[in-house]
Amino acid sequence: MRVVRIANVEHVPLGPAEPVPGWTGGEVHRTRQPIIPEGESDFFNASVVNFQTGAQTGWHRHSSDQILVITVGNGIVANETEEHHVGVGDVVQVKAGENHWHGASANGYMGHITITASDSTASR
């Protein structure tokens, strides 16, 4: 058994994400806090991803489903046909292969826990 105190997990800066066309929310600044780092589980990866005001991921897809649990702030999760405003306590399931983006609203920050399969890959 392993217990992780999120407040004690180091923030790792993420490289820049390409903003979605028309995005005016600001520069894309994010950090990741690996709570189940790659290789620690045979089945899952999990991290907290922290988005500064207006930051988002840019369009991408995963080879496995992705679960997002919003833990702080407000944001947006969108695919090619829908856009949802999300807040603390919301849980989003993004299906494997679904082209999507997610991030903070233009006037606020957001943090979420992301869970994917251990062998999942992301692509643009």
TrEMBL record:
Tree of life domain: Eukaryota
PANTHER family recorded: BLL4564 PROTEIN (PTHR43698:SF1), RIBD C-TERMINAL DOMAIN CONTAINING PROTEIN (PTHR43698)
Protein name per its UniProtKB record: Cupin type-2 domain-containing protein
Leader sequence residues: none
Gene3D superfamilies xref list: Jelly Rolls
Organism taxonomic ancestry: Eukaryota, Metazoa, Porifera, Demospongiae, Heteroscleromorpha
Domain Cupin type-2: 48-104
